[in-house]
Known about the structure:
By secondary structure, the chain is of the alpha/beta class. It folds into 3 domains: 11-74, Winged helix-like DNA-binding domain superfamily/Winged helix DNA-binding domain (Arc Repressor Mutant, subunit A, Orthogonal Bundle), CATH 1.10.10.10; 97-125 and 372-479, Aspartate Aminotransferase, domain 1, CATH 3.90.1150; 130-370, 3-Layer(aba) Sandwich (Aspartate Aminotransferase, domain 2), CATH 3.40.640.10. The protein has helices spanning 11-25, 37-43, 48-60, 100-110, 130-148, 158-168, 185-197, 212-220, 238-247, 269-282, 305-308, 339-350, 355-367, 370-395, 421-430, 461-479, and strands spanning 64-67, 71-74, 95-96, 116-118, 181-183, 203-208, 224-231, 235-236, 252-256, 286-289, 314-319, 331-334, 401-402, 410-414, 433-437, 450-454. Strands 3, 5, 6, 7, 8, 9, 10, 11 and 12 form a 9-stranded mixed sheet that branches. Helix 1 (11-25) packs across helix 3 (48-60), helix 7 packs across helix 8 (212-220) and helix 15 crosses helix 16 (461-479).
Amino acid sequence: MxxxxxxxxxxxxxxxxxVSGLLDSGVLRAGMRAPSIRRIAADHSLSISTVLHAYxxxxxxxxxxxxxxxxxxxxxxxxxxxxxxxxxxxxxxxxDVTVSRGVLSLLDYAARPDIVPLGCAIPSADLLAAxxxxxxxxxAARVKGRAYNIxxxxxxxxxxRAEICRxxxxxxxxxxVDGVAxxxxxxxxxxxxxxxxxxxxxxxxxxxxxxxxxxxxxxALELKAVELPTDAxxxxxxxxxxxxxxxxxxxxxxxxxxFNNPLGCSMSDDGKRAVLALLQRHGVPLIEDDIYGDIYxxxxxxxxxxxxxxxADIIYCSSFSKTLAPGYRIGWIAPQRHMQRxxxxxxAMNICSAALPQAALAEFxxxxxxxxxxxxxxxxxxxxxxxxxxxxxxxxxxxxxxTRPAGGFVLWLEMPDGFDSRRLFDLAIARGICFAPGDxxxxxxxxxxxxxxxxxxxxxxxxxxSIHTLGALTAGLLGA
Length: 480
């Protein structure tokens, strides 16, 4: 590092710019310890107070954080100079869902290798442990392939269900092996849950914005969505939920357990308990989607709703698609009192999930390598979010609002009202860049001025150039 030629008027500001440059270049990354104050002071003939002033400035910007008796560390999630998105204000009336056409076109582009993959939230194969898992699959096929070329019971492989239950105990979630059923990903789990507690034409309360795959399920089942205001920092507006339950018949509530997609926010335990109390008072079941629960950036995994109220009417859904093997399509559901209806629907849809991948995954989990993989994966996603956040901060117009995810691997960007992210999408696709326009995250299309960026691929020059291009295109649309 050198202070020569720095443009800042004060030395502490110049030093802060240099440290920021180390982040942009990748020398320092999210979670790393910054150079010690004494070392920088000695290397550059600066006083301790000057260096400390620079670090405090970076702390105020959300770039560094001080840890007692340990020093300063790079914050996961990027610079915090941007405002976060405003709480959503969706329409309160039950809404028919019609998002499938827009989502399918997005999926077509996301599958193309010539398109920069900022659209769908699918982790890069380079970050997943597919190699180790595939070896277990090959061995299972070689040793017991004939035995696994069968239909399993509708609940799925008992060893895999036992491994899932053992992992659930770590977050205080006590599941019984017979209380879990294996599904074809989390999407099927959510579909089975909704089939168990709703019928065509019923209304389901959801967060806004929410994952477009969930909206597709509601559309396929001909259910209506009632969207609830959601804050990018604290999650669902509990007061709005209380008013909804008091005024309108709602057959189910479907919420993220840990990290909302696309906001990356998480509710506090107290907030979750308040939601559960409301739902219990009105006799409304909760369907919780915990697919991002293991991708947390804090000290510990958030507790699912089910762990906070074991006796409540909750259907728990999750999968390994975001952490291990999206192609294996292995998810699970813990429906409690609704198991019989879930199994009947599962059998009618596809009898059971494929036996061989279940057996391979069970052996992989039992081998003990999954936890180390998760630690590496969380680190990679935090770094990716940090890099893309900084690129957005440099490239996008000043009025852009950006989330600060507590987990997962997506960023949500909010533009001024009236901005059309579909127009931006068309311009971006023409330049070989895919992202997710905001209208697919709402039944009422109330987020057309927003967009989601996937941070599931390792940072490289191609992604960096794409963020800069998107920023320039956005500025052009806002100035038009």
